Amino acid sequence: MKLTEIDFLVVGAAKSATTWLRHQLQADPQIYMPDPESHYFSREYHRGTGWYLSQFAPHAGATLIGEKSNSYMDTPVAAPRMHDALPHVRLIAILRDPVERAYSDYCMFYRRGAVSADIEAYLDPRRAAGDRFLQISRYDLHLARLLDHFPADALHVARYEDVEHDPGRVLNEVRAHLGLAPAPLAPTAERRINDSGSRLLPLGVRRALAPLKPIAAPLRGTRSFETVRGLMAKEVAYPILTAELRTRMEEYFQPMEKNIDELAPGIIRSRFSPPPKDMATGEG
């Protein structure tokens, strides 16, 4: 396996249906993508090229090889590293409404017990403009960095909202970017992957049981395990994104659309701007 064999990277954004896209692409035997996100060019660069290439298992029959690591888009050092190692690579990004993306990201961390219920500490631009949740949604900064190192025709930008109402079109636009013919949606991956509504064990119980994970792993999926888990699991009550906080976030992100339009007029903005209000929406 050589670096020159890697054809494309799905670079983000987090909480924007990139896992759905990976599943759709993996359903095509022409394409090979490893399951785990390596985060090589962002967080694991110190491990070296050999380690990175070892993340790609044997892939007989595949004519296109790629990987997905959402941190590549918002980590400043990733773009120059990607270009140094893979100047030929094609990039794919999915953008989501920046407020919705930030809130969804916050909810994921809240679900894990990594952030508190003080939602404004993480999402209010007056307090958290430089923090993870708002910063990842600053697509103008991230796209500008990518376009500083790669030509515009190497970057394909899709919209999360289009995944919801027309996933087949999104998939086939990505496939066209990769030089592939159109294909139907994979039956096992048609719906957008989202576990935010599933039930969880209370956080205190999860922490207490954490040391037992290796022992419990073989039991996962068995009827007895799922029965016990179902008796203890509860729906997660997420902190509410109030109208006032949403307005402050929208005002913070408002200049971003103009910035994006100036980066690549028509190419990126047409995918970032919201769809017409009369357009039917639904889960993809």
TrEMBL record:
One of its GO terms (molecular function) is sulfotransferase activity. The keyword Transferase applies. The keyword Transferase applies. Keywords: Transferase. SUPFAM superfamilies: P-loop containing nucleoside triphosphate hydrolases (SSF52540). Pfam families: Sulfotransfer_3. This is Sulfotransferase domain protein. It comes from Palleronia marisminoris.
